[in-house]
Amino acid sequence: SIGIDKLPLAVFIAKTLPLFLSIESGKLKSTFENLKQIVPTVKPAEVALDVPIMRKSFTDENLFALRKWKAAIDTLESPYREVFLLLFFSILEPCSFTSKDGQFLRIKKDKKPMKPEEALYKKVLDAEQDLLIVKNLLITGDVCYPEVYEGDARDLSRISFKKPPTIIITSPPYPNRYDYTRTYCLELCFHFVKNFNELKKIRFSLLRSHIESKVKPGEKPSHPAISEVVEALNNKELNNPRIPYMLMAYFNDMRKVIEQWSMILDNKGKVAMVVDNVRFEGELIPTDLILSEMAEDVGFQVKEIIISRYKGNSSQQMRKYGKVPVRESIVVWELKS
Predict the structure, then answer these.
(1) pLDDT band at residue 282, thresholds of 50, 70 and 90?
(2) 262: CB partners within 8 A, 6+ apart
């Protein structure tokens, strides 16, 4: 299998999870004890402190301690460095005032953050227990690790496929205003970016599904339904005037993605994709149907649209326009021969 993602954190996680299988029982705990001895001796790691939420998310004491633990982890050799970095990322939220909540990383001042050493030790014990369970379930023999690339689904020309893929299984961002560089801001700022400018560079490089998405001069919607929705929304009072631009940019990007899939898939190759329909100011956007029409335009046949669940609307929309269930679907396409 091959994994491709544009968010560096996602790529890191996908590459690191299989490395846990190479760790002997008890080694995580003993490595943690060694790190405890190193932490007081190292200089705090350089992190992206000019990103405003970094200062707001932690007590001064916790931020200093986390930087020291990060510096200590950076002294480890592979695979322990990667494994402990992943465990470290998993404690940033518990050690902060933040909570991953919908579109944002929210600050909750009434939250009581854990101490970094305590939180990391708990994660180490959890990981040791998980490894015992997983290794007992695994069939002995050679392990086939996935290939993982940091890449852009809008342009797959730089990915070297040994042979054409036979199936794509994916859940791309939905056109719902979520900005994953905000959701995972702490993780990115502790390791993947050095400053706010580098964070913004990642933000504007991702699939344009969030409200800050930039639209090129003269860019037009790539589907008639989106043209209609954009026109309707431009005539309404929106809580954010950039919503029409985001919708246009999202579907333009997804058309590029679908075109790329049609070029790299094997004959009769399939796509199974989770998508979410959305509603803004009473305007319903049937994402599953629009993307399926785009797929048919480039040579796919729609085999099935499976409704996985129905979701409610925001309380503001329901008060204004009534309750209309919005479906989350799995679209299944096959490339025509």
Answers:
(1) confident
(2) 295, 298, 299, 300, 335
**HSE toward the beta carbon, residue 137, CA cutoff 13 A:** 7
Helices 116-137 and 80-89: crossing angle, nearest 10°? Answer: 120
SS3 89: helix
Residue indicated by tokens 């309380």: 315
**Cα gap 93→300, rounded to integer Å:** 42
CA atoms 312, 317, 319, 323: torsion sign? negative
Q: How far apart are CA 264 and CA 166, in angstroms?
A: 9
Give residue 319's pLDDT.
66
Average pLDDT of the residues in 284-309: 95
Under DSSP, the state recorded for 77 is: P
Could you tell me the pTM of the whole model? Answer: 0.90
The separation between CA 113 and the C-alpha centre of its own chain, rounded to angstroms, equals 24
Listed in sequence order, the residues at least 6 apart from 109 whose beta carbon sits closer than 8 Å to its beta carbon are 97
- Nearest Cα residue to 268 out of 195, 332, 174: 332
Convert 92-129 to b/e letters by CB count within 10 Å (16 or more is b): bbbbbbbeeeeebbeeeeeeebbebbebbbebbeebbe
Q: Is 264 exposed, middle or buried (0-12, 13-18, 19+ CB in 10 A)?
A: middle
